[in-house]
Amino acid sequence: MARTALSHTLELGSLRLVRAIADAGSITGAAASLGYTQPAVSQHVRRLEQRLGTALLERTPRGVRLTEAGQVLARCGARVAASVDAAEREISALTGLQTGVVRVVAFPTASAVLVPAALTQLRELAPRVAVRYVEAEPPESVEAVREGRCDIALSYGAVEDDGIGDLRCRQLLLDPCVLALADDHPLAGRRRLHLRDLADARWIVGRHRLGRHLTAAAAQAGFTPLITIQTDDYVATFAFVAAGLGVALLPGLISTVAARHPGITLRSVSGGGRLPVFALTRPDLLRVPAVAATLDALQDAAASTL
Asked: Which of 86, 145, 165, 206 has the least C-beta neighbours within 10 A?
């Protein structure tokens, strides 16, 4: 049979079908793996054999076995199918750069500065990338990536806390913590403060990792913080601080917002430590340009906050 005639006889579906029969060792198994009925696969093979003018299968007591011609199709079909699949992934990735949707989940502090700056840059550099953004604290955000419910999660604190496993981690910044005091606090006028200077203070902290960070930093400074108010709402934290009900150790990311709140003084504080902020995604998503572009925008936005 001429090569042109053979090329018109074969199509990708036929090659994949013969490959499936080779892998399964039976028509029934191939049908199950491809989602077809057994009679449909048998009819397809018979029509293909008629068009090619040669047998592709030999019936045996244990099922079917590929003839030499069938083995050629299975072997070549695997290479063709792999090439087509690779092309589809690359084209999908290129299309995704123009029209893709990237799902991002981040902790609330990131919403104040980091995420808006990143999305603004992304809109300029890749205007057809649509980002769907929701807030969630880790480890919920990390689980969302692992389970495929989002593409990128922003987390903070020790990477080990997230048990990231085979996820890919990109550190965005080391965020220096700042101290928030009421304007009339006795230490508000001091430019240089150490965490131990607040050993007798009442503290306002979040219920998640920032609270654990304060406890660990205070232990390093030689005291146990007296925590009187716990809230994850930064607006409430600012109000409590301004009212003189306690002091707070805040992520640097939130400092520009806190500084605008009346009645609050912000100070750098030695011993307050830094919070690593990082982005997590699945390895396969790193090859998707829309996700890569979003990660780059987050990295650039983080760099601009330092």
From this structure: 165
Contact indicator for 286, 292 with CB cutoff of 8 Å: yes
- C-alpha dihedral, 19 to 20 to 26 to 30, nearest 10°: -150
- Give which of 279, 280, 248 is closest to 261, Cα–Cα: 248
Domains in the chain (CATH in brackets) are 3-97 (1.10.10.10), 100-175+276-305 (3.40.190.10), 178-272 (3.40.190.10)
174-214 confidence digits (pLDDT tens): 999 999 999 999 999 998 999 999 999 999 998 878 899 99
Handedness of CA 285, 287, 293, 295 (dihedral sign): positive
Helices (H) and strands (E) in the chain, counts: 12, 13
Which is nearest to 158 in space by CA: 117, 240, 115, 213?
A: 213
3-state class of 243 per DSSP? coil
Q: pTM of the full predicted structure?
A: 0.66
* Longest CA span, the chain: 96
Amino acid (one-letter) located at 299 = Q
Closest of 84, 231, 253, 236 to residue 173, by C-alpha: 253
Distances 229 to 16, 55, 201, 223 between C-alpha atoms, Å: 63, 80, 12, 18
What tokens does 156 get?
Answer: 């903070």
